[in-house]
Structures are given as structure tokens and as C-alpha cells.
Design a protein that fits this description.
This protein has 213 residues and is of the alpha/beta class. The protein is built from seven helices and nine strands, in the order H-H-H-E-H-E-H-E-E-H-E-E-E-H-E-E. The chain has a single domain, classed as Rossmann fold (3-Layer(aba) Sandwich). The structure holds S-adenosylmethionine.
């Protein structure tokens, strides 16, 4: 986590500038719209954008009528998120250890943020998502599909390095189910080279099953 935080602190301004056009609105809007509709149809409630980076997804979810806050490890990312979205709440923390009471959230989104969590920590990450969601709450995960990580070394000339994991959607789906989620959708789209993508993109939604008493 320290490596991840240092990496994103170093690249935050360049990251936000490079993706400026995309920051205006997430490119996979249909997936986010579907998620927002599910949460809204269930009566709404608080939603966390976990690993929110510069806040583009947080802002988009808010525009879809969700009561959303962003959380990230990186203070520099959060500075940008607050600057760009002064009306939205953002807080610093790790999604592996959330300062959020049990069973409180209507929804949680991890939009390309689980890609730095080592594979052996994914069960703990999904257990943490499950803990903070209310029964019936919805989870959305976005990540690059594939088998091999991409390593970014000295991005934008900064002396930092980080692995970006690619994962098999079916393996992630199994882990979500093991953590207590009922898988609702599994979407994989091909890489779009115009967006600089070199791998397919995967989106999973799951629902925390209501407790059986
Ligand atoms: C690839 S960026 C995606 C940012 C944002 N979701 C977006 O799509 O623009 C990954 C983000 O996840 C954050 N992140 C990674 N691991 C985290 C953790 N354990 N807790 C909180 N944030 C984390 C990083 O700091 C970084 O801002």
C-alpha cells in the first residue's frame, strides 16, 4: 500500500491531466448507469467510490443521483478530487481497512482500484466490501482482464514503479461469491486502442445477499 500511495502521490497531477478528457465523464457510462439504477431502485443510500483517484467516477455517480463519497490512499489524488469537485465529500484511507461501520452502505464501487491489491489479499478486500454493505447492497468492480501485470516504470519521468494487475473475470467472480456476494452481471469488452488500452476491460456487479435468520 505504501508503494501504491507513493506512486499515485507522484503521478497524480500528470494522471489527471493525461486523462483530462476522460475525467469529464467515465467512458463506460452504461455500466455505471446500470449500477446507479440498481441502487436508486433499491431506495438509495450512501455509496462509496473506493480508490476514487481524482474523483471522476465519484462525480459521475453523483450526477446519476447517488449520495456518494470518494476514498483513496493518495493525498495528492484527493487534493485534485476536492479541487475538481468542491461539493463532494472525499476522505483518505485504505479500502482494505475501512473506517465505516458494518452494514451501512447501499453501494460500493471499486473502479480500477483493486488492480494494485496482491492476489492473496483479494479475499480480505472483498470481505471488507461485504462487511460495510447493507444486506441487499450492490458492489461494482472494474478491472483490466488478462493474466499478466503491466509494470509502469518511471511514468511521466517520476522515479516510481508499480504493477497493474490484469485478472481473469471468472477468478474474480469466484472470489466475490466466496465473500458472500451473489454475482449479478459479468461484462467484458474488448480493448479500445483509441483509448490506449492494451487489454480487455471487465466489469462485475454483485449483491450482498440478505442475511437468512
Ligand atoms: C488506476 S487509479 C483509478 C482511480 C479512479 N478510480 C479512476 O478510475 O480514475 C487507482 C486508484 O486506486 C487507489 N488505491 C489503490 N489501492 C488502494 C487502497 N488499498 N485503498 C484506497 N485506495 C487505493 C490509488 O491510490 C489510485 O488513486
Amino acid at each position: 500500500m505504501t508503494t501504491t500511495r507513493i506512486f499515485y502521490d507522484a503521478v497524480a497531477e500528470d494522471y489527471a491531466e493525461m486523462f483530462a478528457e476522460e475525467l469529464a465523464g467515465p467512458r463506460d457510462g452504461a455500466v455505471l448507469a446500470d449500477f446507479a439504477e440498481l441502487v436508486n431502485r433499491g431506495g438509495g443510500g450512501q455509496v462509496a467510490d473506493l480508490g476514487c483517484g481524482p474523483g471522476r467516477t465519484t462525480a459521475h455517480l453523483a450526477s446519476l443521483g447517488l449520495d456518494v463519497f470518494g476514498l483513496d490512499l493518495s493525498g495528492s489524488m484527493l487534493e485534485i478530487a476536492r479541487r475538481e469537485n468542491p461539493d463532494l465529500p472525499f476522505r483518505q484511507g485504505s479500502m482494505l481497512e475501512l473506517d465505516i461501520p458494518d452494514r451501512t452502505l447501499a453501494g460500493a464501487v471499486s473502479w480500477y482500484s483493486s488492480i494494485h491489491t496482491p492476489v492473496d489479499r483479494l479475499p480480505s478486500l472483498f470481505a471488507e466490501f461485504h462487511r460495510v454493505l447493507a444486506p441487499g447492497g450492490h458492489l461494482l468492480l472494474a478491472f483490466q482482464a488478462g493474466d499478466h501485470p503491466l509494470t509502469l516504470d518511471r511514468p511521466f519521468g517520476h522515479p516510481v514503479r508499480l504493477d497493474f494487475e490484469r485478472r481473469r473475470p471468472e477468478a474474480m467472480a469466484e472470489l466475490l461469491e466466496a465473500a458472500g456476494f451473489a454475482l449479478r452481471s459479468r461484462t467484458v469488452r474488448e480493448a479500445n486502442p483509441e483509448l490506449g488500452e492494451s487489454s480487455a476491460q471487465a466489469f462485475l456487479t454483485g449483491r450482498k445477499t440478505a442475511a437468512v435468520l
